[in-house]
Backbone:
């Protein structure tokens, strides 16, 4: 049956058809939908792990135990999972294991543009890269065949454009793969030095065999067109851009395996073209390989290392054509991202700005607190870094700095990699104040459950981490919970915890305003006769509040009645539906 599928959905279908038994992932855009879609197939066990390292380790355990396994993550998540993955390259597999990593050229939802092909090269792992949803399904199934044939984990590289685009997919049935016996083979699976040094030789031999396979593999194909003189070497989304921009005026070497790369196939293709271009987003991995073979190719000198490409990019760079664009006389206002109306993080960030705090930030919805008018985050590195970085800041600058500095981190991110930072603070006698923004969900990636919510990926009740008890077990004696909708309570808590010379944890607890089970109050309204136009209510940057004719206006379709703006109005102009200020 043919279906229109997202690339991520097609990967999930490929897992089902390939007989995968265990799926463990951590949500990260643009990879999240793979595991969400996989969870709909009851034949596969699926879970959200606390972080990508744990997910990769669960997948490793399942494949050693004899079951085909899988984990998914975004590109920065691969950094977290690199430790087990690099060593799994040495152990090889018992049953097939595949890791999907979704890169984000253009940084649509990420803090960097790293190219995961570098991890495949560094870990000496096979990497496949599909160019549409049909290939997402087919390459996923092929990955398990290669994994077991060549005794290796396989990485499936996606990009935002492939993950989130739809195309037709021919689906099939599930193939049940018998579970293999659990091996008692420490020479293969116990990676202590005496064993690992022998396995390294196996890895190098395996890469040679994979490179030989790549020479004639159907997924690496040359496409020649009559009278075409130029050649284009590309993979994934870049193949789609080139084909649409150039059509039959170019020859194509379309790669499905991007590590290891073949040699003779490249040399033969280049020999049939007068000029060869390499089109690849981010780093020049393919171009470097070509030049190592002595081929005269043009790539990064023309296309550069930055951002996401498009059909227009290819036309401009190769054909010198700049498509006509529509002009609009009116000035189009910018639309920067903003915290949602009623977001529980808004009251806390307003308070931190009011108190002129130094704020070490983290990855999540609350990163938007860095933007005006809240302007309340001074640094943001990676998941979990807010806690550790604050400890470093305070140790470097001393108690006076610590007395006005906090770290902010979400509940899911705290579980992901913030706990170890908190332990570091307690163990090394720090005095840092950490604030967990507990909105009862993993928000930025689209409302996934996490170990603090009490529900599994399928919505089944389970144990929930008690953040208060956890902090105390880590050695933090001062722990308190506040409601960020209550500005007075929040301000008092922050002041008091900053004033003490010992570590403390504040849990700013209020569910995400977009959760379906959250019951909102009626929208607030503005009494125009009382409004002075002072714009105090605008300081929180709520999209439901605006100024019209020098008076505040509240959009009732967005307002959830949280009351934060109401607490800022000194003139009682913001009232509920009954007119009470």
Residues:
């Amino acid at each position: 049956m043919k279906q229109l599928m997202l690339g991520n959905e097609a990967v999930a279908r490929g897992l089902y058809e390939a007989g995968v038994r265990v799926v463990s992932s951590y949500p990260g855009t643009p990879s999240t939908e793979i595991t969400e879609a996989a969870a709909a197939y009851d034949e596969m066990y699926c879970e959200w792990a606390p972080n990508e390292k744990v997910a990769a380790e669960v997948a490793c355990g399942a494949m050693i135990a004899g079951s085909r396994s899988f984990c998914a993550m975004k590109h920065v998540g691969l950094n977290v999972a690199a430790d087990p993955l690099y060593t799994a390259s040495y152990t090889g597999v018992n049953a097939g294991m595949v890791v999907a990593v979704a890169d984000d050229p253009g940084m649509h939802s990420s803090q960097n543009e790293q190219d995961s092909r570098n991890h495949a090269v560094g870990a000496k792992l096979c990497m496949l890269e599909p160019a549409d949803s049909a290939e997402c399904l087919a390459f996923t199934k092929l990955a398990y065949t290669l994994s077991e044939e060549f005794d290796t984990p396989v990485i499936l590289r996606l990009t935002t454009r492939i993950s989130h685009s739809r195309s037709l997919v021919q689906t099939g049935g599930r193939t049940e793969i018998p579970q293999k016996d659990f091996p008692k083979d420490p020479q293969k699976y116990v990676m202590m030095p005496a064993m690992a040094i022998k396995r390294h030789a196996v890895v190098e031999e395996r890469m040679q065999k994979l490179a030989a396979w790549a020479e004639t593999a159907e997924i690496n194909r040359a496409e020649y067109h009559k009278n075409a003189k130029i050649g284009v070497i590309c993979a994934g989304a870049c193949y789609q851009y080139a084909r649409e921009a150039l059509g039959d005026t170019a020859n194509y070497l379309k790669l499905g395996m991007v590590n290891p790369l073949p040699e003779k196939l490249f040399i033969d293709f280049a020999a049939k073209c007068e000029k060869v271009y390499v089109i690849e987003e981010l780093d020049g991995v393919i171009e470097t390989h070509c030049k190592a073979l002595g081929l005269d190719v043009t790539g990064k000198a023309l296309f550069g290392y930055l951002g996401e490409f498009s059909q227009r990019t290819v036309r401009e760079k190769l054909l010198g054509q700049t498509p006509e664009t529509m002009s609009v006389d009116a000035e189009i206002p910018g639309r920067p991202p903003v915290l949602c109306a009623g977001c529980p993080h808004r009251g806390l960030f307003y308070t931190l700005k009011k108190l002129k705090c130094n704020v070490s930030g983290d990855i999540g919805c609350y990163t938007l607190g860095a933007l005006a008018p809240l302007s309340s985050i001074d640094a943001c590195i990676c998941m979990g870094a807010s806690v550790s970085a604050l400890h470093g800041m305070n140790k470097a600058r001393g108690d006076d700095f610590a007395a006005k500095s906090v770290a902010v981190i979400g509940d899911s991110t705290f579980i992901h990699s913030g706990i170890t930072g908190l332990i570091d603070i307690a163990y090394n006698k720090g005095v840092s104040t950490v604030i967990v923004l507990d909105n009862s969900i993993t928000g930025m990636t689209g409302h996934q459950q996490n170990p603090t919510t009490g529900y599994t990926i399928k919505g089944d009740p389970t144990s929930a981490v008690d953040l208060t008890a956890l902090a105390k077990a880590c050695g933090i004696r001062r722990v308190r919970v506040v409601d960020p909708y209550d500005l007075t309570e929040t301000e008092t808590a922050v002041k008091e915890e900053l004033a003490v010379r010992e570590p403390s944890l504040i849990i700013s607890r209020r569910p995400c305003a977009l959760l379906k089970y959250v019951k909102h109050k009626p929208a607030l309204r503005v009494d125009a006769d009382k409004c002075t136009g002072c714009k105090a209510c605008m300081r929180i940057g709520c999209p439901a509040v605006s100024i019209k004719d020098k008076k505040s206006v509240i959009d009732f379709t967005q307002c959830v009645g949280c009351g934060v703006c109401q607490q800022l109005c000194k003139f009682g102009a913001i009232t509920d539906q009954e007119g009470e200020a």
Observations:
- The mean pLDDT is 96.
- The first strand starts at residue 2 and ends at 6.
